Amino acid sequence: MTTSATPRERLLDAAGELFYRDGVNIGVDALCKAAGVSKKSMYQLFRSKDELIAESLASRGPSYQALLHPGPEDDRTARDRILAVFERQDQMVAEGNFLGCPYVSTAIELKNPEHPGSVVARHFKQQLTDFFHRELRKAGAEDPATLAIQLTIIFDGASARAVVRAQNLGGIGVVTAAALLDAAGVRSGELVG
Amino acid sequence: MTTSATPRERLLDAAGELFYRDGVNIGVDALCKAAGVSKKSMYQLFRSKDELIAESLASRGPSYQALLHPGPEDDRTARDRILAVFERQDQMVAEGNFLGCPYVSTAIELKNPEHPGSVVARHFKQQLTDFFHRELRKAGAEDPATLAIQLTIIFDGASARAVVRAQNLGGIGVVTAAALLDAAGVRSGELVG
């Protein structure tokens, strides 16, 4: 965070970091302190803490996705591009300080699907499923919609495992996703569409 | 909760319910009020709120497991006994008020694998994996240890999906578990050991 960042940017950065690290129940005082912004300024910039939860989660979405999804320049097969997501998840866990998928954690902590933060979480989780769906269509999978959901389930289950066990995944997410792709006949040799 | 329950039982019941419904950050005052127990009594019965989190989670474990795991009297094949867990999860979500697997939610909210509540969460999550492992050995699966972990991942990923999307699973957990069992050659016809 640079000191030239605006109060709004500093709040979004601090909120994104602290909500992930400490949970959405962290107090507004701690957030404002971390951001170096007064509470009065915070409420001028964001209508409520709930809005800050939603906006900070949304603001971190693109960089989180860039970490996980292979870009368009990655010309491997659809299968390999899908498995790359699980390989990156594995690395992310191995790097330490992994506290779960930020979208799933936020939804679990908020316990209210109508909360603006839960709406953001659902949106970004759907984008992962959409990524899988596009790749599976390219690979000619028979039922890409169902398989994309199943891959998302494996991704989120592997995240949960990393949190509950507090240990590395050791490739189990990659292997499980590969087993499902094998079973659906999505092989490496298939043409990229 | 009957009025003849002891203060300890009332606290464990109220804590189990409120920690699940509202999260582990709910205050001790609200817990004591729900249990009809003074704060002084609470701290005579439990050393700390952390201990109450752990003990209330542990006290609900057996009944939660009884809901999910088929009992020894259920003489279906190992494969069907495994899939029964996913069918029950599907039902549990469909019944409403599903806020995630209580163990995963607790671990995610506590964000500290050394917390006594996280230790309890890990213990019960392992028992689900152990159940799958026993059934897979009976079914003669080639690598029951890995497959048991993979089934646990599907279970937790399906739970996450139910929370994030706030909608029924519609059998997706069952279908995904079945696909993995098919791929591993664990079929219905196999003998129960």
Automatic annotation (TrEMBL), chains A, B:
<dbReference type="GO" id="GO:0003677">
    <property type="term" value="F:DNA binding"/>
</dbReference>
<dbReference type="InterPro" id="IPR001647">
    <property type="entry name" value="HTH_TetR"/>
</dbReference>
<keyword id="KW-0805">Transcription regulation</keyword>
<dbReference type="InterPro" id="IPR036271">
    <property type="entry name" value="Tet_transcr_reg_TetR-rel_C_sf"/>
</dbReference>
<feature type="DNA-binding region" description="H-T-H motif">
    <location>
        <begin position="27"/>
        <end position="46"/>
    </location>
</feature>
<dbReference type="InterPro" id="IPR009057">
    <property type="entry name" value="Homeodomain-like_sf"/>
</dbReference>
<keyword id="KW-0804">Transcription</keyword>
<feature type="domain" description="HTH tetR-type">
    <location>
        <begin position="5"/>
        <end position="64"/>
    </location>
</feature>
<protein>
    <submittedName>
        <fullName>TetR family transcriptional regulator</fullName>
    </submittedName>
</protein>
<keyword id="KW-0238">DNA-binding</keyword>
<dbReference type="Pfam" id="PF00440">
    <property type="entry name" value="TetR_N"/>
</dbReference>
